[in-house]
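Help needed: design a sequence for this.
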């Protein structure tokens, strides 16, 4: 099965939500709300690329997707529905704008204008910071081609614009998805 313009994907682990935690060999449900975007599965396996696509993503790659791709919602009558990406069973159609990075051979690569930074612990200063992470500073973890060409490397400490970060958990670590134009400088 091939789509003309969309990727065909399924959620990693065949689950729409990542709302369980293994504690002592027992799976505990940590959230039962289908509306809470923080527990949506954001990783998908590419089953098929579009016929019209000629980019680097291949079948079998893992992609980081928007939080609404796999979510259920309730329509105006209270009926449980799948979103616009749903095709059938546990198979979904993705537009190019609905994913941000792909993973092949254990390495993540940013797609289009997206990159990811890992927040860094806050530093001791005289200025009070009511956070656990240093505001607007992070360590570059997933690059796109534009940032590579600008000379930024994985591990570089960067600053970014306020309110540009969008939280993801990637490989068990908290990361912020940013637009490459939100990266303002390297430290």
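Sure. Designed sequence:
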């Amino acid at each position: 099965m091939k789509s003309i313009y969309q990727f065909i994907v399924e959620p990693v682990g065949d689950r729409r939500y990542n709302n369980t935690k293994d504690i002592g060999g027992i799976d505990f449900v940590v959230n039962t709300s289908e509306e809470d975007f923080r527990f949506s599965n954001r990783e998908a396996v590419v089953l098929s690329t579009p016929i019209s696509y000629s980019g680097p993503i291949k079948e079998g790659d893992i992609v980081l997707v928007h939080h609404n791709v796999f979510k259920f919602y309730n329509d105006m009558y209270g009926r449980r529905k799948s979103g616009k990406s749903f095709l059938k069973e546990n198979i979904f159609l993705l537009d190019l704008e609905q994913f941000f990075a792909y993973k092949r051979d254990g390495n993540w690569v940013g797609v289009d204008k997206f990159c990811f930074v890992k927040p860094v612990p806050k530093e001791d200063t005289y200025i009070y910071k009511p956070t656990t992470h240093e505001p607007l500073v992070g360590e570059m973890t997933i690059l796109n081609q534009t940032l590579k060409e600008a000379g930024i490397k994985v591990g570089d400490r960067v600053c970014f614009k306020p309110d540009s970060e969008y939280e993801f958990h990637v490989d068990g670590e908290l990361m912020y998805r940013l637009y490459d134009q939100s990266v303002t400088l390297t430290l």
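Residues 7-108 form one domain.
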